Amino acid sequence: MAIHSQLISPDFPDLDKVNALNIEAFPEEERVPLEELLDYARPDNAHFFAFYEEEDFIGFAFALYNEACFYVSFFAIMPRLRSRGYGSLIIDKLVDFYQGKTMVLEVERLDEPCDNLEQRKSRMDFYRKNGFKSSQSYLEYDNLSFEILFRGPAFDEAAYRDIFDKLQSESPFDFDIIHRIED
User: Fold this and answer.
1) Residue 100: left (phi > 0), alpha (psi -120 to 50), or beta?
2) Which pLDDT score is estimated for 80?
3) Among 11, 23, 111, 157, which residue has the least CB neighbours within 10 Å?
4) Which strands, in side-by-side order, build the sheet including 102-108?
């Protein structure tokens, strides 16, 4: 499988596919409207990627970055193409693109009550299989809580906070980083 990427812009020809996947993949309380993602995508600190195999749209990833890390806030694969290796290929492509930077993202927590525990476990297994480790921290905002994972030599909390500070300058929201306390 050979995949390639294109940057998504307001005149991107497959915006309808990107929007439909955004709606399908993310619950309403976690979803950011396509228009906002397009507004945030600036070459100096963010990229909005579409991924293809030949002409077939596979999925998208939205990443913000600084000198130390890149943060993937939205990452989705077309439903009919999930569990076929595309997610791993895209992660590797992103790591290559952001050479030397640690990749950071969040996943739904496994240690809280939910109605989709098997789905959450499957996601966590996918990320662990792809080299991610727990930062032993959680991101909390708007009554939501996510475990922070990273792929790279170490989790740099200051660099991660820097990305959120940039996000807040665009659209302020309260967030907290909570460190796990081991028993």
Assistant:
1) left
2) 96
3) 11
4) 4-7, 46-53, 56-65, 69-77, 102-108, 144-151, 133-141, 176-179
Q: pLDDT value at position 174?
A: 65
Q: Which of 50, 49, 44, 48 is nearest to 66 (CA)?
A: 44
Q: Is the pTM of this model over 0.85?
A: yes
CA distances (Å), origin 24, targets 122, 138, 175? 18, 25, 25
pLDDT digits (tens, 9 = 90+) for 65-104: 999 999 999 999 999 999 999 999 999 999 999 999 999 9
- Cα separation, 126 vs 155, whole angstroms: 19
CA distance 103 to 91: 9
Secondary structure of the chain in HEC code, one letter for each residue: CCCEEEECCCCCCCHHHHHHHHHHHCCCCCCCCHHHHHHHCCCCCEEEEEEEECCEEEEEEEEEECCCEEEEEEEEECHHHCCCCHHHHHHHHHHHHCCCCEEEEEEECCCCCCCCHHHHHHHHHHHHHCCCEEEEEEEEECCEEEEEEEECCCCCHHHHHHHHHHHHHHCCCCCEEEECCCC
- Amino acid identity of residue 51, one-letter, is F
Half-sphere exposure of 16 (CA within 13 A, CB side): 1
pLDDT at 29 over 90: no
